[in-house]
Amino acid sequence: MNKGATIYYILNVYARIKITKLKWAYSAQIKLNLSEVNMNINENYKNLNESYLFSTIAKKVSDFSSKNPNMEIIKLGIGDVTLPLCPAVIEELHNAVNEMSCKETFKGYGPEQGHDFLKISIQNYYKNFCITLKLNEIFISDGAKSDLGNILDLFSKDNICLIPDPVYPVYVDTNLMAGRKIIYIDANEENNFLPLPDESIKCDIIYICSPNNPTGAVYNREQLKKWVDYAISNNAIILFDSAYESFISGDEFPRSIYEIEGAKACAIEFCSLSKTAGFTGTRCGYTIVPDNLNYNNMNLNKMWLRRQTTKFNGVPYIIQKAAAAVFTNEGQKQIQENLNYYKRNAKIISDTLDKLDIKYTGGKNSPYIWLKCPSNMNSWDFFDLLLTKIGIVGTPGSGFGKNGENWFRLTSFNTIENTTKAMERFYNFFK
Ligand code: MLT
Q: For 372-385, how does the pLDDT look when each residue is reduced to its tens digit (9 = 90+)?
C-alpha cells in the first residue's frame, strides 16, 4: 500500500468508529427521552379485584390439593360440563376436519359473523319459540362471555349500567375496565332474587340473566315485560344473557327475551352452546342484534357488524359445523339426554338440602343451586369449611356481589357418581 492509500485507509476507519459512537449516543438519548414520557394506561383496572372469581377459587383449590394430596376433591364450583360432546356433534366435527384436509373443500377465512348454514339452524331453532329472526340479526360468536364484554365497544363510557346483585362477575368487571358507572339493584330473598325495575332509577344499559347465574331464579313473561317497558320508556338497552335457556322445562318461562312484545326494539340477546351442548372447551355461541335497534340515529346491528368485521375473524369452520349438528333432530335429542342428566344431579343436590331444611333457589330450570349457608355462615368461611372438611368445592355467594354474602352456589355439572358422593358427605356433615 502506498502512503496516500494508507492515510486514506486510516481516515476511513476513524470515520466509521466516530459514526458508530454517534449512533450509540443518539439511541441512548432516545431511550432516555422515552423513559421520561408518561405512559397513560387504563387505571380503571385498579378498581377490579386482583383476580377473576373463578381463577381465585381454582388457585385456592390447587393450593389445598397440593398440601393434601390424599383428599379427594369433588368440584361443584365453576359451571363446567363433564359429559362429552354428543355423537351427532362428534360426527360432524370429523366430517369437517376431513373437509379441511382436501383441496376442494378446504376453507380459509369465513364470514366474520358466521356461516349461513349455522345461522339458518339457529333461525329455525327460534321458530320453536315463535320468534322470527333475519339471518343478518344472528352473529356467531366464540361464547356469550366474550360477546358480553365485546358489545360494550358500541356504548359510550358515559352510559350508566344497571346490574343486579348478585351477578355473573363478567358484567361488572367489563364495565369497571371501561370506567363506566354502575348502579346495582338488589336481588335477594324478599324479591325471590328477581328484581323488577324501579322507575326512579335512570340508566342506559340493563343486564338481565334468566335463568339466572348465580341464583337459578327465572323471570316469567309478565316480569320480563316490565323490564322491556322500562327499557323502552328510558331509551335504555337490555343485554339479555340466555346462556341457560335450555335448562327451562315446559312453557311457563320464556326461553328468549324476544318472546316478549317490544323486546326487538330494546334488547340484544347472548346465548351459548357451552352449557346447552357441552361446548365449554369447544367455544361457540351466538348473539342476536335486531336490525331495527337504533339509538341516537345509529343502528346497533350495523355497528356490531362493523365491530366484528374489524376485530374478529369468526369462529373456526369445523366448530361451526359441529354447532350446526346441535340443532338437528338427532343433536337435539342427544343434548336433551345430557341436560336431563345434569337435571338429575340438580335434584340430588336439592333433595339433600330439603332433607337438611336448608333454604335454596334454582335447580329446577337451571343447573345452579343457590343455598343459604347453614348458621348464616360467611360465604368464604363456608367455602373453606366444605373444602377442608369434606372436600367439596362450590362458589361463595359473596363473589357474585354483596347480596350473595351468606349464600353459596353449587352446580349440577359434575358426574352423577360424584354429585351423589358429594351430597352424601354434605348430608353426613350437616345432619
Ligand atoms: C360460571 O360458573 O358461572 C360459568 O361457568 C362461568 C362462565 O360461563 O363463564
A: 999 999 999 999 99
